[in-house]
Amino acid sequence: MTIGFFVVVGAMFLLLTIQFGSCWQAILILSIIPFGFIGAILGHIVMGIELTLFSIFGIVALAGVVVNDSIVLVDFINRRVADGLPIHEAIVDGGRRRFRAVLLTSVTTVAGMLPILLERSKEAQVVSPMATSLAFGLTLSTVLVLVLAPVMYLITARLSGGQEVAVD
């Protein structure tokens, strides 16, 4: 499964590079995934649950949701820059206007996992590690998508020679 995960991440990198026309933006989007892993591990520690195969399934699902959230934000910022906004204004506008979409995606997913997280029956204990990985990882990574992705966008724009940004 580890090999498959890295193959899929590589494929996502290629597709994102083609879609956005920039390997920097593909790296930016994919760089949020490890923070989701950290949230998943912390969730297992908090819940007192050992990592299982189902935990790994949850982490793989988490990677998809985190990438989706990042794409929503980065794509909107790109469109605002293409419309002629300075990068700094496009980032602020993107964060403000896509905040609800990113937050609702995460909140509804975590809310959907709550019944499984709170259930204590033997049957639920099988899938509880998956729900723990997804819910806790998504909680941490959502905050980081909303904060870290815009900051990294600004940094990558500066490194790749994008338009000069006036910092207030």
TrEMBL record:
Keyword Transmembrane among record annotations: yes
Domain of life: Bacteria
TM segment ranges: 6-22, 27-47, 53-78, 99-118, 130-155
InterPro entries: Acrflvin-R
Cellular component per GO, a single term: plasma membrane
Entry's Gene Ontology molecular function annotations: xenobiotic transmembrane transporter activity
UniProt keyword terms in alphabetical order: Membrane, Transmembrane, Transmembrane helix
Any one Pfam family match given in the protein's UniProt record, by short name: ACR_tran
Keyword Phosphoprotein: no
This protein's name: Multidrug resistance protein
